[in-house]
């Protein structure tokens, strides 16, 4: 019988948080127990916590975690105790049509870790969901593997060519990762946001142009920097249908637009279909990521291609998770991260 205790921040129902002390997980034969170091707060967590997503409760939220291997199932041979790792919290079935067609991000039979979320001292997951981290990599940086994998998937769908111009609308942590990945593909990037500090961060990360749409007409700016041609690609990293409608006419002929952020509450788009027809535009979306996206994202972090550690603006102890949720809701700082190492 396992009598060792761990902390977990439980949500019995939306809007409720309770710090509980519970027995540490028993580890199955093909499972890995990870002692969590850091867990980033994702806007999805906040949406679920506030009841805006249809997820089951009670649960332990948190799905952007890094840490160290604490225990191994007897059939796990490729990892070692104490090894730094990062986790994927969605277990894909591997056999459904989506998984067999290379779209594991849309697995039709996923298993969610309802009681083993990242807002706790330990997580326990199947071995295929644990990714080893290169020694010397900041665990704070590695915790971004999952959101960066989603960003990478979205950028891959835009099929950028070197020298093309991409417009990133919304410069929270996700938008700032879009900026960096697009630049790594050789694109020039225009970054747009209403918050001056986020514009300054985008400039520091290499944005070719930054624009505050409350001060400068974004469409005019696009026309000026592209000589009237338009941007070849655009990412909407803010959940707002009106931004999609406003950005589409800024595309160059053959331009691609990715609705990356989910839009809640649900809304409808009002678009002239002839705009898409004659412009030969591609309007797409992207959601979640595959294990292959995860591996590549982790490599980009480890190789310094994308600066994720620099996106962390606040580290909070587990006990202040509720405050962290409020900060994300109020767009305070950039990445708010829970430091599980603090007592």
CATH class of the largest domain reads Alpha Beta
**What's the end-to-end separation, in Å?**
25 Å
- CATH topology tier name of the largest domain: Quinone Oxidoreductase, Chain A, domain 1
* Number of distinct helices: 11
Estimate the strand proportion: 25-35%
The chain-level structural class is alpha/beta
Task: List its traits.
343 residues, alpha/beta, Quinone Oxidoreductase, Chain A, domain 1, 2 domains, six-stranded parallel sheet, 11 helices, globular
What is this structure, in a nutshell?
The protein has eleven helices and 17 strands. The protein has 343 residues and is α/β, with parallel strands linked by helices. Strand 11 (188-192), helix 6 (196-204) and strand 12 form a beta-alpha-beta unit.
């Amino acid at each position: 019988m396992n009598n060792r205790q761990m902390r977990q921040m439980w949500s019995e129902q939306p809007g409720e948080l309770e710090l509980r002390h519970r027995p540490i997980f028993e580890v199955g034969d093909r499972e890995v127990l990870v002692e969590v170091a850091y867990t980033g707060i994702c806007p999805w967590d906040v949406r679920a916590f506030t009841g805006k997503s249809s997820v089951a409760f009670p649960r332990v939220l948190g799905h952007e975690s890094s840490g160290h291997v604490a225990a191994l199932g007897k059939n796990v041979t490729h990892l070692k105790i104490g090894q730094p790792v990062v986790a994927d919290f969605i277990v894909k079935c591997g056999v459904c049509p989506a998984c067999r067609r290379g779209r594991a991000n849309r697995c039709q039979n996923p298993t969610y870790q309802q009681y083993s979320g990242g807002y706790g001292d330990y997580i326990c997951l199947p071995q295929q969901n644990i990714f080893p981290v290169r020694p010397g990599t900041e665990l704070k940086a590695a915790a971004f593997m999952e959101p960066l994998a989603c960003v990478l998937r979205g950028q891959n769908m835009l099929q950028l060519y070197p020298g093309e111009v991409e417009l990133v609308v919304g410069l929270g942590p996700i938008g700032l990762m879009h900026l960096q990945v697009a630049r790594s593909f050789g694109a020039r990037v225009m970054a747009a946001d209403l918050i001056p500090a986020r514009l300054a961060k985008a400039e520091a990360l290499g944005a070719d142009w930054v624009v505050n749409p409350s001060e400068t007409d974004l469409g005019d700016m696009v026309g000026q920097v592209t000589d009237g041609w338009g941007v070849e690609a655009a990412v909407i990293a803010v959940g707002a249908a009106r931004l999609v409608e406003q950005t589409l006419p800024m595309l160059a002929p053959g331009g691609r637009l990715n609705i990356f952020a989910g839009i809640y509450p649900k809304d409808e788009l009002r678009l002239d279909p002839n705009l898409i027809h004659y412009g030969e535009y591609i309007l797409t979306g992207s959601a979640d990521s595959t294990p292959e996206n995860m591996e590549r994202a982790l490599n980009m972090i480890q190789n310094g291609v994308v600066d994720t550690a620099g996106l962390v603006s606040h580290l909070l102890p587990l006990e202040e998770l509720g405050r962290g949720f409020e900060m994300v809701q109020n767009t305070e700082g950039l990445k708010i991260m829970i430091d599980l190492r603090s007592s």
